[in-house]
Design a protein that fits this description.
single chain, about 180 residues, 2-enoyl-CoA Hydratase, Chain A, domain 1, 5-stranded mixed beta sheet, about 35% helix
Length: about 180
């Protein structure tokens, strides 16, 4: 795909690998969601690709929203056009390969994939609930479907766990 995009698609045999490369932590910054959608569309039209893997370059899968974009007046896409919707509707199976952090929108992207694989060291969560924001990418619907209502409620309510993970990410991000 385009060299200027923070997202690329490479074919390895019959597997398409979509890589997010938006250092330092692969936040959902400008062009990331659009790049994933563009690469996904290309992979779905390539008859040589049978399945798709979504992975983050470097130390994290996708560590959530790029806070530099908060407060901007970016228009929200209608349902069916968001990156979550296009992943969910992919004609070919999409596997999220989770390592490092998958927080907020990053976890929601992983949950929109058909399958998820995570390293034991991966850290996942929806830390936006700590500041009174509802997950905006379908996390409150997808998480209970994937892990059950009780486990999802525990995840949403375990503030100490989420707060410690969010603090770790902030400290890591500050040191980068």
């Amino acid at each position: 795909m385009s060299g200027a995009s923070p997202v690329s698609l490479e074919r390895h045999g019959d597997i398409g690998v979509i890589t997010v490369n938006y250092p330092p932590v692969n936040a959902l910054g400008p062009g990331v969601a659009e790049g994933i959608k563009e690469c996904l569309a290309h992979a779905n039209t390539d008859p040589a690709i049978k399945a798709i893997v979504l992975i983050g370059a470097g130390r994290s899968f996708i560590a959530g929203a790029d806070i530099r974009g908060f407060g901007t007046n970016r228009p929200r896409l209608p349902l069916g056009e968001r990156v979550y919707d296009t992943l969910d509707a992919s004609e070919k199976p999409v596997i999220a390969a989770i390592h490092g952090y998958a927080l907020g929108g990053g976890l929601e992207i992983a949950m929109a994939c058909h399958y998820r694989m995570a390293l034991p060291s991966a850290k996942v969560g929806l830390p936006e609930v700590l500041i009174g924001i509802l997950p905006g990418g379908g996390g409150t619907q997808r998480l209970p479907r994937l892990i059950g209502a009780k486990a999802a409620l525990d995840t949403f309510l375990l503030r100490r766990f989420l707060r410690s993970r969010a603090t770790e990410l902030e400290e890591q991000h500050a040191s980068d």
